[in-house]
Write a structure and sequence with these properties.
By secondary structure, this protein is an alpha+beta fold. The protein has 2 domains: 120 residues, no CATH class; 172 residues, Sandwich (Jelly Rolls). The protein has 2 helices and 23 strands. β12 and β13 form a beta hairpin. It is elongated, with a radius of gyration of 35 Å. The relative contact order is 0.21.
Length: 363
Amino acid sequence: MAGTNRNRAFRRRGFSLIELSIASSLTVVVMLAVGGALLLMTRGAAGIQNSSRLNADASISLARMRRELGAAVTVTSLSATHIEFTHPDVNADGADDLIIYDWTGVAGAAITRKVGSDTAVPIVENVSEFSMTSTCSIVTLPGETSDVTGEVVLASHESIPSGSTGSFGAGPVSYYSWRGQGFIVSFDDLEYYSLTRAKVYLQGTGTSGTLYVSIRSSSTNTTYEEKSLSLSSLSSAEYLWYEFSFSSLGSMNPGQTYSLILRTNTSSTGLNVGRDEYATNPVGSDYYMMSSNTGGSWSADSWRDCRYILYGKLKYYSPHAGQTITRKYLTGLTVRLKLAQGTSVAEMTSGTCCLNRPEITGL
């Protein structure tokens, strides 16, 4: 009897139903806690990974922009979210290239980069903020007092004027399709003027032949001087400024309308002249013209302007203080970039020094 009691004392006692329920509940609580911790760790790791990727994207894109902007030669368009500038040869064609950086201003849209006539491609995605702040130097050159000035800009159109809206377009030029830009030079006390040079914004089409650029009377179609250029020398990859020098245009009449005429000797389109097309007519004058019958008759190509610059010298009746020349140079840019994807954000601000001090034209 005594042995039986001892065996009962050492016999292992089982768990009751209440104890099993409590143990199960504790196990569930522990597992939920562990699962929650793992979920937070996973989400945290993903967030860190996204932030690291955004920071890397921002850093790489800013480094590329800083490098190219620092080597800019001229700047033809500049705003907080858009810049167009020429850069030393990037596509191995031996000529400077036009590079365009642009952001639409829509959060989430990409910043795009365009070289010449190539298609714009995104360089960084998920952009929530992008802005460029320029630092410029302005140089004003006083003119000397004389009745004959040095070479000055007589007339020009380089881009859509501030306050107007529109778009850039192409004016095809061929043997049949001529393009003309009328211009008037008029100043008080001006006796006459000479025209020395013309620059025109052109793009070739790969056609062989010859381009002819002339100065003509708009009333009689008399040609005063004409210059030629091989079409094969024009870049077909992008628009560039091409210069033509004149030697016999020394007594032009102030207030008279003359025309800058472009034509070719090819039946197919040999080149495009760059032009700006206004949303509304800013001046009420139809100076840009076209002819579809080899200059036989002309019609106004309304609300458009050819991109051109005319240079020359002014002859006054009496001595005048020469026109002051103001030039604006870009010395530096501060670029601010913010990327956002979900809850991950990368924000950077970087400055670049424009080594060539590119002149800002057409602004």
